[in-house]
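EI: anyone free to look at a 185-residue chain?
SC: sure, send it
EI:
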Amino acid sequence: MIVYPRGLAQTGGSMENALTWTSKYGSVFASFYGKASSDGLNEAGLAANTLYLAEADYGDYTLSNKPRLSIGAWNQYFLDNFATVAEAVAAMQEPPFVIVAPLLPNGRAASVHLSLSDSTGDSAILEYVDGELKIHHSNDYRVMTNSPVLTSKLQSTNTGSLLVETKCYQVQSMRQTVLFVLTTY
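SC: here you go
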């Protein structure tokens, strides 16, 4: 676990035209390969979580003049800058950056999607599909799994073919109740 204070100067990665910002909120998070923020919570109660998404397609970042953000810093960007899901979703209607997916130590390009939730119970799932950001913002989107993309999961669920077994676990903290769902299919 890593703790970052508010007021920390941040960068979107070691690359040309990297996005820079100063964190508005302190956060605690788990690191992936010691180089990326994968799951975390900020002091305002915003939680950000990333999971593997083989279908992720962030588009060709070289075709844009926007600042660049490594996919490994995507999660941290939200923890640092937003107190609520609504704020984050509003800011991403016109993303201020392009995503760069570097190669991981296993030799594959990073490919994830992101879920956000806050202390009010609001939630959203953000996925890049075919080079475009898709935002699923509603209380209907409270659970995210690894691949496939969310719309595929919802279509499978509606036909009854996705879920074989589901177990729910509830964890109570001082600030909020978190529901973990384990699904096998």
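EI: The mean pLDDT is 81.
SC: 👍
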